[in-house]
Automatic annotation (TrEMBL):
<feature type="transmembrane region" description="Helical">
    <location>
        <begin position="93"/>
        <end position="122"/>
    </location>
</feature>
<keyword id="KW-1133">Transmembrane helix</keyword>
<dbReference type="GO" id="GO:0140359">
    <property type="term" value="F:ABC-type transporter activity"/>
</dbReference>
<dbReference type="Pfam" id="PF12730">
    <property type="entry name" value="ABC2_membrane_4"/>
</dbReference>
<keyword id="KW-0472">Membrane</keyword>
<feature type="transmembrane region" description="Helical">
    <location>
        <begin position="128"/>
        <end position="150"/>
    </location>
</feature>
<feature type="transmembrane region" description="Helical">
    <location>
        <begin position="157"/>
        <end position="176"/>
    </location>
</feature>
<dbReference type="GO" id="GO:0005886">
    <property type="term" value="C:plasma membrane"/>
</dbReference>
<feature type="transmembrane region" description="Helical">
    <location>
        <begin position="205"/>
        <end position="225"/>
    </location>
</feature>
<feature type="transmembrane region" description="Helical">
    <location>
        <begin position="51"/>
        <end position="73"/>
    </location>
</feature>
<keyword id="KW-0812">Transmembrane</keyword>
<protein>
    <submittedName>
        <fullName>ABC transporter permease subunit</fullName>
    </submittedName>
</protein>
<feature type="transmembrane region" description="Helical">
    <location>
        <begin position="19"/>
        <end position="39"/>
    </location>
</feature>
Length: 238
């Protein structure tokens, strides 16, 4: 990991405009939790549904898209990545550093708000807050890696990422039984299910499949992104 690259990337991601893109969905999640708590909807079923539908099902993939593509895709599009690659820094190191930044942003803007929102609703009851936070952690890291790779291999990363998040994760991965095994969202729910004792959450993907799948996706995506950067021409042409 290169600290200089990390510092530059953090400054870009936490700038005046992008930080609001990252913060909007977590703020909405916590606002929903406060609203449900205020109107007396703070029970297990409401908490689980909010975590499944909004935190894991909506917020997580969209934040992964913003963080994962945001750490590198804009630099490739405007050509500023060429200046970075002209430095004596290994391109796999650049990719890994970008991944670490994206993953850390996912922790700050998705994992912590997920725990806070669930805690607001039902405290530590049934382990729902910690269970979904842990699921969000693993899935957030996976999303960061996948969307980082997408940002490297395609100049239409955001468009493809939105389609992936909404169509595959939101529709196909959520409702087609066979496709659920290959949905990061479903992997997150599998981890949450194992960590909670609530009767309102039942994952259809085994933990023994979900965890290794996440590891393979993360390692494979980061390595592929590093190799892809190796063949990126210093003229800016692929």
């Amino acid at each position: 990991m290169n600290t200089v690259v990390a510092s530059i990337t953090y400054r870009a991601m936490l700038g005046r405009k992008r930080i609001w893109l990252l913060a909007l969905l977590p703020i909405a999640l916590i606002a929903f939790a406060l609203l449900f708590r205020f109107i007396g909807g703070g029970d297990e079923s409401v908490a689980v549904e909010l975590m499944k539908v909004f935190a894991i099902g909506t917020m997580l993939p969209l934040l992964g898209l913003i963080a994962g593509t945001g750490v590198i895709a804009p630099e490739i599009e405007d050509g500023t990545i060429i200046h970075l690659m002209s430095k004596p820094i290994s391109r796999p190191v650049i990719a890994f550093t970008k991944f670490v930044v994206a993953a850390s942003l996912m922790v700050a803007f998705s994992v912590i708000p997920t725990y806070v929102a669930a805690y607001i609703l039902i405290g530590t009851e049934s382990g729902i807050a910690s269970g979904f936070a842990l699921g969000a952690l693993f899935a957030g890291i996976a999303y960061a890696a996948v969307f980082l790779l997408l940002g490297v291999v395609s100049r239409h990363a955001v468009t493809i990422g939105v389609i992936y998040a909404l169509v595959w994760e939101g529709l196909i991965g959520g409702y087609v039984p066979g496709a659920r095994r290959f949905s990061i969202q479903q992997w997150a729910q599998s981890i949450a299910d194992q960590m909670t004792t609530t009767a309102f959450l039942k994952s259809e993907v085994a933990l023994s499949f979900a965890v290794p799948a996440m590891v393979i996706v993360v390692v494979g995506s980061v390595l592929w992104a590093g190799q892809r950067l190796r063949v990126l021409s210093l003229t800016g042409d692929e």
